[in-house]
Amino acid sequence: MKIGIVCYPTYGGSGVVATEIGLGLAQRGHKVHFITYKRPVRLAHFHENIFYHEVTDAEYPLFEYPPYDTALASKLVDVVNYENLDILHVHYAIPHAAVAYMAKKILLSQGRYIPVITTLHGTDITLVGKNPTFAPIVAFSINKSDGITAVSENLKQETYANFEINKNIEVIYNFIDFNRFSRLNKEHFKKAIAPEGERIITHISNFRKVKRVDNVIRIFKKIHEIIPSKLLLIGDGPERIKLEKLCRELELCDAIRFLGKQSAVEELLAVSDLFIIPSENESFGLSALEAMACEVPVISSNIGGLPEVNIQGVTGFLSNPDNIDEMAKNAIQILAKDEVLQQFRKNALAQAKRFDIDNILPQYERYYEQIIKTAFQEKPMVR
Ligand code: GMT
């Protein structure tokens, strides 16, 4: 198949998932065209089946806000026509589903039907999407997509609960590539971070409010009072300055390291003993899955899609997002004894295997085939 992929190319879950889908499909022989405003971060190497089309800004003094949506729609029309694409797969509803609909209408006026699949990732529904600024266009453009997928059962249900959706939403879970994420021997890193053999606790996110990184620090404080430990905070974002201040107030600066954005997170997960993700909202929690693939148990909140990834008492524990005491108590239970930690590590890996990329990618392939077939059964005159 010739597949067009539209996504946010910067750091962030949806762009990472979209890029990995494209890379995986290219390995399986499909021609994959990425259409974005910047080269996706994980699209670093040449591959004969990967193509990249950059959407450029139209600068003009009249535009206080350069019309990116319009530029993207025009680019989609161009790429679909000249690269002869079979399907467009857009990630994150805002604005990609609406832009794809616009491109589809233009192409239809030229006698060509392009099926569109929208993958919902989370905040495009639960946070930004249901904001009245965007809600009408989100509902409309989801309903106009030929196929819709959600990254968890919970996100599917949230979408139906928040919008009037008259179509089936297919759940295709996020996935993990074990060639990259698996427990590596990085003893030298461990020694550098925790020279006295302290436990290493990790959190990775974009440090937005919704991630509750402040609670990671508060949970860590309680763990640290009982168990010699270090906390690695990986990522960056709007909350960073407040978080640094909190570390100082709690006198934890010696035990906490802010590592900023890291590209080889698997190397840091390889030395971690526990992962904490107490988000207020999380449609899936890809970073928790990445930790589990590296045999790291997870302390998480019990919201969104997290209970579909982290299994209570098996791969870690789940609590209400603000229940700091319970999360700390559960973390201590995992970390206190080596045998207990080993069992949680084993269970985390076994659960992560359910999300192996080799099981999930064929689901996307089958879904593309089904959507293309249905689209052309209904509209046999245009191709
Ligand atoms: O919130 C983020 O971390 C970014 C956001 C995105 O779209 O880039 O992540 C969402 O999509 C990820 C990939 O599908 C999911 O793993 C995250 O759970 C989801 N974030 C939220 O729902 C808050």
Notable features of this structure?
single chain; 383 residues; alpha/beta; Rossmann fold; 2 domains; 7-stranded parallel sheet; 6-stranded parallel sheet; 15 helices; 45% helix; elongated; binds ligand GMT
Structural features, described:
This protein has 383 residues and is an alpha/beta fold. The protein folds into 2 domains: 2-175 and 357-378, Glycogen Phosphorylase B (Rossmann fold, 3-Layer(aba) Sandwich); 187-355, Glycogen Phosphorylase B (Rossmann fold, 3-Layer(aba) Sandwich), CATH 3.40.50. The chain is 45% helix and 17% strand. It has 15 helices and 13 strands. The strands form 2 sheets. Strands 3-2-1-4-5-6-7 form a 7-stranded parallel sheet, sandwiched between helices. It is elongated. Bound molecules: ligand GMT.
SSE topology sketch:
Elements (H helix, E strand, L loop, with lengths): L1 E5 L6 H15 L3 E6 L13 E5 L13 H16 L3 E5 L1 H17 L6 E5 L2 H4 L8 H10 L2 E4 L2 H10 L6 E3 L15 H7 L5 E7 L7 H14 L2 E7 L4 H10 L6 E5 L4 H5 L4 E4 L8 H8 L4 E4 L4 H4 L6 E4 L4 H13 L1 H16 L3 H22 L5
Parallel strand pairs: 1-2, 1-4, 2-3, 4-5, 5-6, 6-7, 8-9, 8-11, 9-10, 11-12, 12-13
Helix pairs in contact: 2-3, 3-5, 8-13, 11-14, 13-14
The structure holds ligand GMT.
| Total beta-strand segments | 13
The major β-sheet equals:
7 strands, parallel
Order of helices and strands: EHEEHEHEHHEHEHEHEHEHEHEHEHHH
Low-confidence stretches: none
Strand content: 15-25%
Name given to the CATH homologous superfamily of the largest domain: Glycogen Phosphorylase B
Question: Taking Cα atoms only, what radius of gyration do you get, to the nearest Å?
Answer: 22 Å
User: Which kinds of small molecule does this entry bind, naming each only once?
Assistant: ligand GMT
The CATH level-2 architecture of the largest domain is identified as 3-Layer(aba) Sandwich
CATH hierarchy class name of the largest domain: Alpha Beta
Mean pLDDT: 94
The percentage helix is 40-55%
Quaternary state of this entry equals single chain
Strand order of the largest sheet: 3-2-1-4-5-6-7
Structural class: alpha/beta
End-to-end Cα distance, whole Å, is 15 Å
> What shape does the CA trace take?
elongated
Please give the count of helices.
Answer: 15
Whole-number count of domains: 2
Q: Under CATH, the topology of the largest domain is which?
A: Rossmann fold
